[in-house]
Design a protein that fits this description.
The structure is a homodimer of 329-residue chains. Chain A is built from ten helices and 15 strands. By secondary structure, chain A is of the alpha/beta class. In chain A, the strands form three sheets. In chain A, strands 3-2-1-4-5-6-15 form a seven-stranded parallel β-sheet, with helices on both faces. At the A-B interface, helix 6, strand 14 and helix 10 of A face helix 6, strand 14 and helix 10 of B.
Protein backbone atom coordinates (compact mmCIF):
# COMPACT_ATOMS: atom_id res chain seq x y z
CA UNK A 1 0.00 0.00 0.00
CA UNK A 2 1.55 3.28 -1.10
CA UNK A 3 1.37 5.80 1.73
CA UNK A 4 2.06 9.51 2.00
CA UNK A 5 1.99 11.64 5.15
CA UNK A 6 0.27 15.05 5.24
CA UNK A 7 1.50 17.10 8.20
CA UNK A 8 4.88 16.44 9.76
CA UNK A 9 4.31 17.65 13.32
CA UNK A 10 4.89 15.29 16.27
CA UNK A 11 1.84 13.11 15.46
CA UNK A 12 2.73 12.98 11.76
CA UNK A 13 6.28 11.88 12.54
CA UNK A 14 5.04 9.21 14.96
CA UNK A 15 2.54 8.01 12.35
CA UNK A 16 5.33 7.63 9.81
CA UNK A 17 7.56 5.80 12.28
CA UNK A 18 4.80 3.32 13.06
CA UNK A 19 3.79 2.93 9.40
CA UNK A 20 7.42 2.21 8.51
CA UNK A 21 7.30 -0.92 10.72
CA UNK A 22 4.44 -2.46 8.69
CA UNK A 23 5.22 -4.97 5.96
CA UNK A 24 2.19 -3.82 3.95
CA UNK A 25 3.27 -0.14 3.86
CA UNK A 26 5.40 1.58 1.22
CA UNK A 27 5.99 5.22 2.20
CA UNK A 28 6.47 7.41 -0.86
CA UNK A 29 6.68 10.89 0.65
CA UNK A 30 5.44 13.59 2.98
CA UNK A 31 3.72 16.96 2.62
CA UNK A 32 4.31 19.97 4.89
CA UNK A 33 4.31 23.72 4.40
CA UNK A 34 7.22 24.27 6.81
CA UNK A 35 10.16 25.60 4.69
CA UNK A 36 12.56 24.00 7.17
CA UNK A 37 11.19 20.55 6.27
CA UNK A 38 10.54 20.86 2.52
CA UNK A 39 13.07 18.91 0.48
CA UNK A 40 14.40 17.00 3.45
CA UNK A 41 14.23 13.21 3.53
CA UNK A 42 11.72 11.46 5.76
CA UNK A 43 14.62 9.29 6.90
CA UNK A 44 16.25 12.38 8.38
CA UNK A 45 13.04 13.68 9.97
CA UNK A 46 12.02 10.33 11.49
CA UNK A 47 15.38 8.70 12.14
CA UNK A 48 14.18 5.67 10.16
CA UNK A 49 16.92 4.80 7.63
CA UNK A 50 14.48 2.94 5.37
CA UNK A 51 12.72 6.25 4.64
CA UNK A 52 15.89 7.94 3.33
CA UNK A 53 14.65 8.08 -0.26
CA UNK A 54 11.21 9.52 0.57
CA UNK A 55 11.11 13.31 0.51
CA UNK A 56 9.03 16.17 1.92
CA UNK A 57 7.03 18.13 -0.66
CA UNK A 58 5.33 21.51 -0.22
CA UNK A 59 2.01 20.40 -1.70
CA UNK A 60 -0.06 17.47 -2.88
CA UNK A 61 0.56 18.36 -6.53
CA UNK A 62 4.35 18.40 -6.17
CA UNK A 63 4.26 15.05 -4.37
CA UNK A 64 2.08 13.55 -7.10
CA UNK A 65 4.39 14.85 -9.82
CA UNK A 66 7.58 13.62 -8.19
CA UNK A 67 6.63 10.49 -6.23
CA UNK A 68 3.46 9.22 -7.92
CA UNK A 69 0.02 8.62 -6.48
CA UNK A 70 -0.36 7.13 -2.99
CA UNK A 71 -3.23 4.76 -2.17
CA UNK A 72 -3.69 6.34 1.25
CA UNK A 73 -2.65 9.62 2.84
CA UNK A 74 -2.36 9.89 6.61
CA UNK A 75 -3.63 13.38 7.44
CA UNK A 76 -2.54 14.76 10.83
CA UNK A 77 -2.54 18.52 10.60
CA UNK A 78 -5.74 20.17 11.86
CA UNK A 79 -8.64 19.72 14.30
CA UNK A 80 -11.31 21.76 12.50
CA UNK A 81 -13.65 20.28 9.93
CA UNK A 82 -13.48 23.20 7.48
CA UNK A 83 -9.68 23.22 7.28
CA UNK A 84 -9.62 19.43 7.03
CA UNK A 85 -12.14 19.35 4.17
CA UNK A 86 -10.19 22.04 2.29
CA UNK A 87 -7.01 19.96 2.58
CA UNK A 88 -8.60 16.57 1.90
CA UNK A 89 -10.92 17.51 -0.98
CA UNK A 90 -8.08 17.66 -3.58
CA UNK A 91 -6.81 14.26 -2.36
CA UNK A 92 -10.24 12.72 -2.79
CA UNK A 93 -10.51 14.32 -6.25
CA UNK A 94 -7.42 12.32 -7.21
CA UNK A 95 -9.08 9.14 -5.88
CA UNK A 96 -6.68 8.99 -2.95
CA UNK A 97 -8.10 7.65 0.31
CA UNK A 98 -7.38 9.46 3.56
CA UNK A 99 -7.21 8.49 7.22
CA UNK A 100 -7.24 11.64 9.31
CA UNK A 101 -6.68 12.43 12.97
CA UNK A 102 -8.83 15.57 12.57
CA UNK A 103 -11.10 15.40 15.61
CA UNK A 104 -14.11 17.04 13.97
CA UNK A 105 -13.90 14.60 11.07
CA UNK A 106 -15.00 11.76 13.37
CA UNK A 107 -18.58 12.89 12.78
CA UNK A 108 -18.31 15.58 10.11
CA UNK A 109 -22.03 16.18 9.70
CA UNK A 110 -22.26 17.70 13.19
CA UNK A 111 -20.58 21.05 12.52
CA UNK A 112 -20.56 21.32 8.74
CA UNK A 113 -23.12 19.11 7.02
CA UNK A 114 -22.63 20.95 3.72
CA UNK A 115 -18.86 20.39 3.65
CA UNK A 116 -19.40 16.78 4.70
CA UNK A 117 -21.93 16.18 1.94
CA UNK A 118 -19.64 17.74 -0.64
CA UNK A 119 -16.62 15.69 0.44
CA UNK A 120 -18.77 12.54 0.47
CA UNK A 121 -19.91 13.26 -3.09
CA UNK A 122 -16.33 13.87 -4.22
CA UNK A 123 -15.24 10.58 -2.62
CA UNK A 124 -18.01 8.64 -4.33
CA UNK A 125 -17.33 10.27 -7.70
CA UNK A 126 -13.60 9.55 -7.63
CA UNK A 127 -13.51 6.26 -5.68
CA UNK A 128 -11.88 7.62 -2.52
CA UNK A 129 -12.52 6.76 1.13
CA UNK A 130 -12.06 9.35 3.89
CA UNK A 131 -12.18 8.53 7.60
CA UNK A 132 -11.59 10.49 10.79
CA UNK A 133 -10.26 8.41 13.67
CA UNK A 134 -8.04 8.37 16.75
CA UNK A 135 -8.20 7.18 20.33
CA UNK A 136 -10.30 10.11 21.56
CA UNK A 137 -12.32 10.97 19.65
CA UNK A 138 -12.42 7.76 17.61
CA UNK A 139 -12.38 4.95 20.13
CA UNK A 140 -12.66 5.07 23.92
CA UNK A 141 -15.51 7.58 24.27
CA UNK A 142 -17.52 6.61 21.18
CA UNK A 143 -16.67 3.51 19.11
CA UNK A 144 -16.04 1.24 22.10
CA UNK A 145 -19.28 2.22 23.91
CA UNK A 146 -21.21 1.74 20.65
CA UNK A 147 -19.60 -1.68 20.23
CA UNK A 148 -20.83 -2.75 23.68
CA UNK A 149 -24.43 -1.95 22.74
CA UNK A 150 -24.27 -4.62 20.05
CA UNK A 151 -25.24 -7.22 22.65
CA UNK A 152 -28.02 -5.14 24.22
CA UNK A 153 -31.73 -5.70 23.69
CA UNK A 154 -32.47 -2.21 24.96
CA UNK A 155 -30.37 0.86 25.68
CA UNK A 156 -31.68 3.61 27.90
CA UNK A 157 -28.55 5.72 28.31
CA UNK A 158 -24.78 5.62 27.86
CA UNK A 159 -22.26 7.11 30.26
CA UNK A 160 -18.54 7.33 29.55
CA UNK A 161 -15.70 8.52 31.75
CA UNK A 162 -12.07 9.05 30.83
CA UNK A 163 -9.36 10.14 33.24
CA UNK A 164 -5.93 10.87 31.75
CA UNK A 165 -2.79 11.67 33.67
CA UNK A 166 -1.56 14.41 31.36
CA UNK A 167 1.88 14.38 32.98
CA UNK A 168 2.58 11.27 30.88
CA UNK A 169 1.59 12.98 27.61
CA UNK A 170 3.33 15.14 25.03
CA UNK A 171 4.13 18.80 25.60
CA UNK A 172 1.54 20.29 23.20
CA UNK A 173 -1.22 18.41 25.00
CA UNK A 174 -0.02 19.64 28.39
CA UNK A 175 -0.32 23.17 27.04
CA UNK A 176 -3.65 22.59 25.29
CA UNK A 177 -5.23 21.69 28.64
CA UNK A 178 -4.12 25.00 30.17
CA UNK A 179 -1.23 23.87 32.37
CA UNK A 180 0.23 26.86 34.21
CA UNK A 181 -2.57 29.30 33.35
CA UNK A 182 -4.82 30.96 35.88
CA UNK A 183 -8.01 28.84 36.03
CA UNK A 184 -10.22 31.73 34.84
CA UNK A 185 -7.86 32.45 31.95
CA UNK A 186 -8.05 28.84 30.80
CA UNK A 187 -11.83 28.77 31.03
CA UNK A 188 -11.97 31.96 28.95
CA UNK A 189 -9.72 30.38 26.30
CA UNK A 190 -12.01 27.34 26.21
CA UNK A 191 -15.08 29.53 25.80
CA UNK A 192 -13.35 31.17 22.83
CA UNK A 193 -12.60 27.78 21.25
CA UNK A 194 -8.86 28.24 21.75
CA UNK A 195 -8.18 25.50 24.31
CA UNK A 196 -9.57 22.21 25.53
CA UNK A 197 -10.16 18.77 24.10
CA UNK A 198 -11.48 18.76 20.52
CA UNK A 199 -14.05 16.21 19.47
CA UNK A 200 -16.17 15.58 22.57
CA UNK A 201 -19.35 16.69 20.84
CA UNK A 202 -18.40 14.56 17.84
CA UNK A 203 -18.07 11.51 20.10
CA UNK A 204 -21.53 12.19 21.51
CA UNK A 205 -23.01 12.74 18.07
CA UNK A 206 -21.52 9.50 16.72
CA UNK A 207 -23.02 7.52 19.60
CA UNK A 208 -26.41 9.14 19.08
CA UNK A 209 -26.24 8.46 15.34
CA UNK A 210 -25.47 4.75 15.88
CA UNK A 211 -28.22 4.33 18.46
CA UNK A 212 -30.75 6.09 16.23
CA UNK A 213 -31.27 8.84 18.80
CA UNK A 214 -32.43 12.19 17.44
CA UNK A 215 -30.49 14.80 19.41
CA UNK A 216 -32.64 17.50 21.03
CA UNK A 217 -29.73 19.24 22.64
CA UNK A 218 -25.99 18.71 22.89
CA UNK A 219 -24.03 20.70 25.45
CA UNK A 220 -20.42 20.92 26.50
CA UNK A 221 -18.82 22.54 29.52
CA UNK A 222 -15.22 22.83 30.63
CA UNK A 223 -13.73 23.76 33.97
CA UNK A 224 -10.11 24.10 34.95
CA UNK A 225 -8.64 21.49 37.25
CA UNK A 226 -6.67 23.38 39.90
CA UNK A 227 -3.27 22.10 41.04
CA UNK A 228 -3.18 21.22 44.75
CA UNK A 229 0.62 21.09 44.67
CA UNK A 230 3.46 22.43 42.51
CA UNK A 231 3.96 20.24 39.43
CA UNK A 232 6.91 20.16 37.06
CA UNK A 233 7.07 18.07 33.89
CA UNK A 234 9.68 18.15 31.11
CA UNK A 235 7.31 20.53 29.29
CA UNK A 236 5.55 22.76 31.85
CA UNK A 237 5.77 24.15 35.39
CA UNK A 238 2.58 24.62 37.36
CA UNK A 239 2.24 26.29 40.75
CA UNK A 240 -0.32 25.23 43.33
CA UNK A 241 -3.56 27.10 42.53
CA UNK A 242 -2.88 27.31 38.79
CA UNK A 243 -4.67 25.32 36.14
CA UNK A 244 -3.20 21.82 35.74
CA UNK A 245 -5.69 20.46 33.24
CA UNK A 246 -9.35 20.23 32.38
CA UNK A 247 -12.64 18.65 33.29
CA UNK A 248 -14.74 18.64 30.13
CA UNK A 249 -18.27 17.31 30.09
CA UNK A 250 -20.66 16.66 27.24
CA UNK A 251 -24.31 15.76 27.45
CA UNK A 252 -26.93 14.75 24.91
CA UNK A 253 -30.63 15.02 25.60
CA UNK A 254 -33.28 13.35 23.49
CA UNK A 255 -36.65 14.87 24.23
CA UNK A 256 -36.41 15.56 27.96
CA UNK A 257 -34.12 12.62 28.70
CA UNK A 258 -30.36 12.72 29.25
CA UNK A 259 -29.22 9.84 27.03
CA UNK A 260 -25.45 10.33 26.73
CA UNK A 261 -22.95 11.75 29.20
CA UNK A 262 -19.23 12.02 28.40
CA UNK A 263 -16.96 12.99 31.27
CA UNK A 264 -13.33 13.72 30.49
CA UNK A 265 -10.65 14.70 32.98
CA UNK A 266 -7.14 15.33 31.64
CA UNK A 267 -4.78 16.85 34.13
CA UNK A 268 -1.26 16.62 35.44
CA UNK A 269 -0.73 13.96 38.13
CA UNK A 270 -4.33 12.67 37.81
CA UNK A 271 -4.56 9.58 40.03
CA UNK A 272 -6.13 6.34 38.79
CA UNK A 273 -6.28 7.06 35.04
CA UNK A 274 -8.87 4.86 33.35
CA UNK A 275 -11.53 4.56 30.68
CA UNK A 276 -14.96 3.38 31.70
CA UNK A 277 -18.39 3.11 30.26
CA UNK A 278 -21.79 2.13 31.60
CA UNK A 279 -24.64 1.08 29.36
CA UNK A 280 -28.00 1.56 31.07
CA UNK A 281 -30.08 -1.09 29.39
CA UNK A 282 -30.66 -4.80 29.15
CA UNK A 283 -28.26 -6.26 29.88
CA UNK A 284 -26.74 -3.39 31.84
CA UNK A 285 -23.00 -3.28 31.17
CA UNK A 286 -20.17 -1.70 33.10
CA UNK A 287 -16.74 -1.75 31.48
CA UNK A 288 -13.42 -0.41 32.69
CA UNK A 289 -10.01 -0.27 31.08
CA UNK A 290 -7.66 0.11 34.01
CA UNK A 291 -4.89 2.72 33.50
CA UNK A 292 -6.81 3.81 30.38
CA UNK A 293 -5.73 3.83 26.76
CA UNK A 294 -2.58 5.96 26.44
CA UNK A 295 -3.40 8.76 24.06
CA UNK A 296 -0.62 9.64 21.65
CA UNK A 297 0.68 6.20 20.81
CA UNK A 298 -2.87 4.86 20.54
CA UNK A 299 -4.00 7.67 18.21
CA UNK A 300 -1.16 6.99 15.82
CA UNK A 301 -2.01 3.27 15.97
CA UNK A 302 -5.68 3.93 15.26
CA UNK A 303 -4.76 5.97 12.18
CA UNK A 304 -2.35 3.41 10.73
CA UNK A 305 -4.53 0.38 11.62
CA UNK A 306 -7.50 1.93 9.82
CA UNK A 307 -5.83 2.05 6.39
CA UNK A 308 -6.47 -1.57 5.32
CA UNK A 309 -10.05 -1.36 6.60
CA UNK A 310 -11.04 1.75 4.68
CA UNK A 311 -9.77 0.26 1.42
CA UNK A 312 -12.24 -2.63 1.90
CA UNK A 313 -15.14 -0.20 2.39
CA UNK A 314 -17.18 1.36 -0.40
CA UNK A 315 -16.07 4.88 -1.45
CA UNK A 316 -17.38 7.80 0.58
CA UNK A 317 -16.85 9.90 3.67
CA UNK A 318 -16.90 7.06 6.19
CA UNK A 319 -17.68 6.72 9.88
CA UNK A 320 -15.61 4.50 12.15
CA UNK A 321 -18.72 2.51 12.95
CA UNK A 322 -19.55 1.82 9.28
CA UNK A 323 -16.31 0.05 8.40
CA UNK A 324 -15.01 -3.23 9.85
CA UNK A 325 -14.35 -3.66 13.56
CA UNK A 326 -11.15 -1.89 14.64
CA UNK A 327 -8.21 -4.27 14.59
CA UNK A 328 -4.43 -4.27 14.74
CA UNK A 329 -3.06 -4.32 11.19
CA UNK B 1 -37.22 -5.65 6.78
CA UNK B 2 -39.08 -8.93 6.25
CA UNK B 3 -37.90 -11.49 8.78
CA UNK B 4 -38.46 -15.23 9.21
CA UNK B 5 -37.28 -17.39 12.08
CA UNK B 6 -35.65 -20.79 11.49
CA UNK B 7 -35.76 -22.92 14.65
CA UNK B 8 -38.36 -22.31 17.33
CA UNK B 9 -36.56 -23.56 20.43
CA UNK B 10 -36.04 -21.27 23.43
CA UNK B 11 -33.48 -19.08 21.64
CA UNK B 12 -35.63 -18.87 18.51
CA UNK B 13 -38.66 -17.80 20.52
CA UNK B 14 -36.64 -15.17 22.39
CA UNK B 15 -35.23 -13.92 19.07
CA UNK B 16 -38.75 -13.50 17.72
CA UNK B 17 -39.95 -11.73 20.85
CA UNK B 18 -37.09 -9.25 20.65
CA UNK B 19 -37.43 -8.79 16.88
CA UNK B 20 -41.14 -8.06 17.35
CA UNK B 21 -40.23 -4.99 19.43
CA UNK B 22 -38.28 -3.40 16.55
CA UNK B 23 -39.97 -0.84 14.33
CA UNK B 24 -37.87 -1.94 11.34
CA UNK B 25 -38.92 -5.60 11.56
CA UNK B 26 -41.85 -7.29 9.82
CA UNK B 27 -42.05 -10.95 10.89
CA UNK B 28 -43.59 -13.08 8.14
CA UNK B 29 -43.27 -16.60 9.55
CA UNK B 30 -41.30 -19.34 11.25
CA UNK B 31 -39.82 -22.68 10.23
CA UNK B 32 -39.57 -25.73 12.49
CA UNK B 33 -39.75 -29.49 11.97
CA UNK B 34 -41.61 -30.08 15.25
CA UNK B 35 -45.10 -31.39 14.29
CA UNK B 36 -46.48 -29.85 17.50
CA UNK B 37 -45.50 -26.38 16.23
CA UNK B 38 -46.21 -26.60 12.48
CA UNK B 39 -49.33 -24.64 11.51
CA UNK B 40 -49.50 -22.78 14.81
CA UNK B 41 -49.30 -19.01 14.89
CA UNK B 42 -46.15 -17.29 16.12
CA UNK B 43 -48.47 -15.17 18.26
CA UNK B 44 -49.47 -18.27 20.17
CA UNK B 45 -45.89 -19.59 20.49
CA UNK B 46 -44.40 -16.27 21.61
CA UNK B 47 -47.31 -14.66 23.44
CA UNK B 48 -46.88 -11.59 21.21
CA UNK B 49 -50.35 -10.68 19.86
CA UNK B 50 -48.86 -8.76 16.90
CA UNK B 51 -47.49 -12.05 15.53
CA UNK B 52 -50.91 -13.72 15.39
CA UNK B 53 -51.03 -13.77 11.60
CA UNK B 54 -47.53 -15.23 11.12
CA UNK B 55 -47.46 -19.04 10.96
CA UNK B 56 -45.03 -21.90 11.48
CA UNK B 57 -44.08 -23.80 8.31
CA UNK B 58 -42.35 -27.19 8.06
CA UNK B 59 -39.77 -26.02 5.51
CA UNK B 60 -38.24 -23.06 3.73
CA UNK B 61 -40.12 -23.88 0.53
CA UNK B 62 -43.52 -23.95 2.22
CA UNK B 63 -42.80 -20.64 3.93
CA UNK B 64 -41.72 -19.06 0.63
CA UNK B 65 -44.87 -20.32 -1.12
CA UNK B 66 -47.26 -19.13 1.57
CA UNK B 67 -45.66 -16.03 3.11
CA UNK B 68 -43.30 -14.73 0.45
CA UNK B 69 -39.57 -14.15 0.59
CA UNK B 70 -37.98 -12.72 3.74
CA UNK B 71 -35.01 -10.35 3.53
CA UNK B 72 -33.35 -12.01 6.52
CA UNK B 73 -33.77 -15.32 8.32
CA UNK B 74 -32.70 -15.66 11.94
CA UNK B 75 -31.23 -19.16 12.21
CA UNK B 76 -31.04 -20.62 15.72
CA UNK B 77 -31.13 -24.37 15.44
CA UNK B 78 -27.72 -26.03 15.44
CA UNK B 79 -24.14 -25.62 16.69
CA UNK B 80 -22.29 -27.61 14.02
CA UNK B 81 -21.01 -26.05 10.81
CA UNK B 82 -22.04 -28.94 8.53
CA UNK B 83 -25.66 -28.95 9.70
CA UNK B 84 -25.80 -25.16 9.56
CA UNK B 85 -24.46 -25.01 5.99
CA UNK B 86 -26.96 -27.67 4.88
CA UNK B 87 -29.82 -25.61 6.33
CA UNK B 88 -28.55 -22.22 5.19
CA UNK B 89 -27.41 -23.10 1.64
CA UNK B 90 -30.99 -23.19 0.24
CA UNK B 91 -31.75 -19.84 1.89
CA UNK B 92 -28.68 -18.27 0.28
CA UNK B 93 -29.66 -19.80 -3.06
CA UNK B 94 -32.89 -17.80 -2.81
CA UNK B 95 -30.85 -14.64 -2.12
CA UNK B 96 -32.06 -14.56 1.49
CA UNK B 97 -29.57 -13.27 4.05
CA UNK B 98 -29.07 -15.15 7.32
CA UNK B 99 -27.95 -14.25 10.82
CA UNK B 100 -27.19 -17.45 12.70
CA UNK B 101 -26.41 -18.30 16.31
CA UNK B 102 -24.56 -21.42 15.10
CA UNK B 103 -21.36 -21.31 17.13
CA UNK B 104 -19.14 -22.90 14.50
CA UNK B 105 -20.34 -20.41 11.90
CA UNK B 106 -18.50 -17.60 13.72
CA UNK B 107 -15.36 -18.70 11.87
CA UNK B 108 -16.57 -21.35 9.43
CA UNK B 109 -13.24 -21.94 7.70
CA UNK B 110 -11.80 -23.51 10.85
CA UNK B 111 -13.60 -26.85 10.76
CA UNK B 112 -14.95 -27.07 7.23
CA UNK B 113 -13.18 -24.80 4.75
CA UNK B 114 -14.81 -26.58 1.80
CA UNK B 115 -18.35 -26.04 3.10
CA UNK B 116 -17.47 -22.44 3.96
CA UNK B 117 -16.08 -21.78 0.48
CA UNK B 118 -19.14 -23.29 -1.14
CA UNK B 119 -21.57 -21.28 0.99
CA UNK B 120 -19.56 -18.13 0.32
CA UNK B 121 -19.75 -18.77 -3.43
CA UNK B 122 -23.51 -19.37 -3.23
CA UNK B 123 -23.94 -16.13 -1.29
CA UNK B 124 -21.95 -14.14 -3.83
CA UNK B 125 -23.79 -15.70 -6.77
CA UNK B 126 -27.25 -14.99 -5.36
CA UNK B 127 -26.63 -11.75 -3.44
CA UNK B 128 -27.04 -13.18 0.07
CA UNK B 129 -25.14 -12.38 3.27
CA UNK B 130 -24.59 -15.02 5.96
CA UNK B 131 -23.17 -14.28 9.40
CA UNK B 132 -22.60 -16.31 12.55
CA UNK B 133 -22.81 -14.29 15.76
CA UNK B 134 -23.78 -14.32 19.41
CA UNK B 135 -22.36 -13.20 22.72
CA UNK B 136 -19.96 -16.13 23.08
CA UNK B 137 -18.77 -16.95 20.55
CA UNK B 138 -19.39 -13.72 18.69
CA UNK B 139 -18.52 -10.95 21.10
CA UNK B 140 -16.91 -11.14 24.54
CA UNK B 141 -14.13 -13.64 23.81
CA UNK B 142 -13.35 -12.61 20.23
CA UNK B 143 -14.86 -9.46 18.65
CA UNK B 144 -14.38 -7.25 21.71
CA UNK B 145 -10.72 -8.26 22.23
CA UNK B 146 -10.07 -7.71 18.51
CA UNK B 147 -11.71 -4.28 18.75
CA UNK B 148 -9.33 -3.29 21.55
CA UNK B 149 -6.30 -4.06 19.38
CA UNK B 150 -7.41 -1.33 16.97
CA UNK B 151 -5.57 1.22 19.11
CA UNK B 152 -2.41 -0.88 19.55
CA UNK B 153 0.86 -0.29 17.73
CA UNK B 154 1.99 -3.81 18.60
CA UNK B 155 0.27 -6.89 19.97
CA UNK B 156 2.29 -9.70 21.51
CA UNK B 157 -0.50 -11.82 22.96
CA UNK B 158 -4.19 -11.72 23.89
CA UNK B 159 -5.70 -13.27 26.99
CA UNK B 160 -9.43 -13.49 27.66
CA UNK B 161 -11.30 -14.74 30.70
CA UNK B 162 -15.02 -15.26 31.12
CA UNK B 163 -16.71 -16.41 34.33
CA UNK B 164 -20.44 -17.11 34.14
CA UNK B 165 -22.70 -17.96 37.04
CA UNK B 166 -24.68 -20.67 35.27
CA UNK B 167 -27.32 -20.68 38.01
CA UNK B 168 -28.71 -17.53 36.36
CA UNK B 169 -28.95 -19.16 32.93
CA UNK B 170 -31.51 -21.29 31.09
CA UNK B 171 -32.05 -24.99 31.83
CA UNK B 172 -30.49 -26.40 28.63
CA UNK B 173 -27.27 -24.54 29.37
CA UNK B 174 -27.18 -25.83 32.94
CA UNK B 175 -27.38 -29.35 31.50
CA UNK B 176 -24.90 -28.72 28.68
CA UNK B 177 -22.24 -27.87 31.26
CA UNK B 178 -22.73 -31.21 33.04
CA UNK B 179 -24.65 -30.14 36.13
CA UNK B 180 -25.36 -33.18 38.30
CA UNK B 181 -23.07 -35.59 36.46
CA UNK B 182 -20.08 -37.27 37.98
CA UNK B 183 -17.04 -35.16 37.03
CA UNK B 184 -15.40 -38.01 35.08
CA UNK B 185 -18.64 -38.70 33.21
CA UNK B 186 -18.86 -35.05 32.13
CA UNK B 187 -15.25 -34.97 31.00
CA UNK B 188 -15.88 -38.13 28.96
CA UNK B 189 -18.90 -36.50 27.32
CA UNK B 190 -16.80 -33.46 26.47
CA UNK B 191 -14.07 -35.61 24.94
CA UNK B 192 -16.76 -37.21 22.76
CA UNK B 193 -18.00 -33.79 21.62
CA UNK B 194 -21.33 -34.26 23.42
CA UNK B 195 -21.05 -31.58 26.10
CA UNK B 196 -19.30 -28.32 26.81
CA UNK B 197 -19.24 -24.85 25.32
CA UNK B 198 -19.27 -24.76 21.52
CA UNK B 199 -17.22 -22.20 19.66
CA UNK B 200 -14.15 -21.60 21.82
CA UNK B 201 -11.80 -22.67 19.05
CA UNK B 202 -13.75 -20.48 16.63
CA UNK B 203 -13.23 -17.48 18.93
CA UNK B 204 -9.50 -18.17 19.00
CA UNK B 205 -9.36 -18.67 15.23
CA UNK B 206 -11.20 -15.40 14.57
CA UNK B 207 -8.78 -13.46 16.77
CA UNK B 208 -5.79 -15.07 15.04
CA UNK B 209 -7.29 -14.31 11.63
CA UNK B 210 -7.80 -10.62 12.47
CA UNK B 211 -4.31 -10.25 13.90
CA UNK B 212 -2.74 -11.95 10.89
CA UNK B 213 -1.35 -14.75 13.04
CA UNK B 214 -0.77 -18.07 11.29
CA UNK B 215 -1.89 -20.71 13.78
CA UNK B 216 0.68 -23.45 14.47
CA UNK B 217 -1.48 -25.23 16.99
CA UNK B 218 -4.87 -24.70 18.56
CA UNK B 219 -5.80 -26.75 21.60
CA UNK B 220 -8.81 -26.99 23.86
CA UNK B 221 -9.22 -28.69 27.23
CA UNK B 222 -12.21 -29.00 29.54
CA UNK B 223 -12.40 -30.02 33.17
CA UNK B 224 -15.44 -30.39 35.37
CA UNK B 225 -16.00 -27.81 38.09
CA UNK B 226 -16.89 -29.78 41.23
CA UNK B 227 -19.65 -28.54 43.54
CA UNK B 228 -18.41 -27.72 47.05
CA UNK B 229 -21.98 -27.60 48.33
CA UNK B 230 -25.42 -28.92 47.30
CA UNK B 231 -26.96 -26.67 44.66
CA UNK B 232 -30.58 -26.55 43.48
CA UNK B 233 -31.82 -24.39 40.62
CA UNK B 234 -35.26 -24.42 38.96
CA UNK B 235 -33.70 -26.76 36.38
CA UNK B 236 -31.17 -29.05 38.10
CA UNK B 237 -30.13 -30.50 41.44
CA UNK B 238 -26.43 -30.99 42.14
CA UNK B 239 -24.92 -32.74 45.15
CA UNK B 240 -21.60 -31.73 46.67
CA UNK B 241 -18.86 -33.57 44.73
CA UNK B 242 -20.84 -33.71 41.48
CA UNK B 243 -20.11 -31.65 38.40
CA UNK B 244 -21.62 -28.15 38.62
CA UNK B 245 -20.17 -26.74 35.41
CA UNK B 246 -17.06 -26.48 33.32
CA UNK B 247 -13.65 -24.89 33.03
CA UNK B 248 -12.81 -24.81 29.35
CA UNK B 249 -9.52 -23.48 28.07
CA UNK B 250 -8.30 -22.77 24.57
CA UNK B 251 -4.82 -21.86 23.47
CA UNK B 252 -3.26 -20.78 20.19
CA UNK B 253 0.44 -21.06 19.51
CA UNK B 254 2.18 -19.34 16.62
CA UNK B 255 5.58 -20.89 16.10
CA UNK B 256 6.67 -21.67 19.66
CA UNK B 257 4.81 -18.72 21.22
CA UNK B 258 1.49 -18.84 23.06
CA UNK B 259 -0.34 -15.91 21.45
CA UNK B 260 -3.98 -16.41 22.51
CA UNK B 261 -5.46 -17.89 25.68
CA UNK B 262 -9.20 -18.15 26.25
CA UNK B 263 -10.30 -19.18 29.73
CA UNK B 264 -13.99 -19.91 30.26
CA UNK B 265 -15.62 -20.94 33.54
CA UNK B 266 -19.37 -21.54 33.51
CA UNK B 267 -20.69 -23.13 36.66
CA UNK B 268 -23.52 -22.93 39.14
CA UNK B 269 -23.04 -20.34 41.89
CA UNK B 270 -19.80 -19.03 40.34
CA UNK B 271 -18.77 -15.98 42.39
CA UNK B 272 -17.73 -12.72 40.72
CA UNK B 273 -18.93 -13.37 37.16
CA UNK B 274 -17.10 -11.13 34.69
CA UNK B 275 -15.56 -10.77 31.28
CA UNK B 276 -12.00 -9.60 31.03
CA UNK B 277 -9.31 -9.27 28.46
CA UNK B 278 -5.65 -8.32 28.51
CA UNK B 279 -3.77 -7.21 25.43
CA UNK B 280 -0.02 -7.71 25.83
CA UNK B 281 1.33 -5.03 23.58
CA UNK B 282 1.81 -1.31 23.20
CA UNK B 283 -0.19 0.13 24.77
CA UNK B 284 -0.91 -2.79 27.08
CA UNK B 285 -4.65 -2.89 27.79
CA UNK B 286 -6.60 -4.52 30.57
CA UNK B 287 -10.40 -4.45 30.27
CA UNK B 288 -13.07 -5.83 32.57
CA UNK B 289 -16.82 -5.95 32.28
CA UNK B 290 -17.99 -6.41 35.84
CA UNK B 291 -20.76 -9.00 36.29
CA UNK B 292 -20.08 -10.02 32.67
CA UNK B 293 -22.38 -9.98 29.67
CA UNK B 294 -25.44 -12.12 30.47
CA UNK B 295 -25.52 -14.89 27.90
CA UNK B 296 -28.99 -15.70 26.62
CA UNK B 297 -30.49 -12.24 26.37
CA UNK B 298 -27.26 -10.90 24.87
CA UNK B 299 -27.03 -13.65 22.24
CA UNK B 300 -30.54 -12.94 21.03
CA UNK B 301 -29.68 -9.22 20.94
CA UNK B 302 -26.50 -9.86 18.96
CA UNK B 303 -28.47 -11.84 16.37
CA UNK B 304 -31.22 -9.25 15.93
CA UNK B 305 -28.87 -6.24 16.04
CA UNK B 306 -26.73 -7.75 13.27
CA UNK B 307 -29.51 -7.80 10.67
CA UNK B 308 -29.29 -4.16 9.51
CA UNK B 309 -25.49 -4.38 9.43
CA UNK B 310 -25.25 -7.44 7.20
CA UNK B 311 -27.59 -5.90 4.64
CA UNK B 312 -25.11 -3.01 4.27
CA UNK B 313 -22.22 -5.44 3.64
CA UNK B 314 -21.32 -6.94 0.28
CA UNK B 315 -22.73 -10.43 -0.37
CA UNK B 316 -20.81 -13.40 1.00
CA UNK B 317 -20.21 -15.56 4.04
CA UNK B 318 -19.25 -12.78 6.43
CA UNK B 319 -17.21 -12.49 9.60
CA UNK B 320 -18.34 -10.32 12.52
CA UNK B 321 -15.13 -8.34 12.19
CA UNK B 322 -15.66 -7.57 8.48
CA UNK B 323 -19.00 -5.80 8.84
CA UNK B 324 -19.70 -2.56 10.72
CA UNK B 325 -18.97 -2.19 14.42
CA UNK B 326 -21.61 -4.00 16.55
CA UNK B 327 -24.35 -1.63 17.59
CA UNK B 328 -27.84 -1.64 19.07
CA UNK B 329 -30.37 -1.55 16.25
Amino acid sequence: MKIAQFGLGPIGIETLKLAATKSWVNIIGGIDIDPAKIGKSLGELTGVPALASAKVYPSLETLLAAAGKPDVIFHTSVSKIKAACDQIEPMARHGISVVSSCEELLFPALRDPAAAAQLDATCKKHGARVLGTGVNPGFVMDVLPVCLTGVCRSVKAIHVQRVVNAATRRGPLQKKIGSGLEPAAFEKLFSEGKAGHAGLKESAALIAHCLGWKISNITETCRAMVADHDITTPHVSVKKGQCCGLHQYGEVTVGQEVKITLDLKMYLDAPNPHDSCQIEGEPALSMTISTGVAGDSATVSAVVNAAPRILKAPPGLLLMTDIGVPSFA
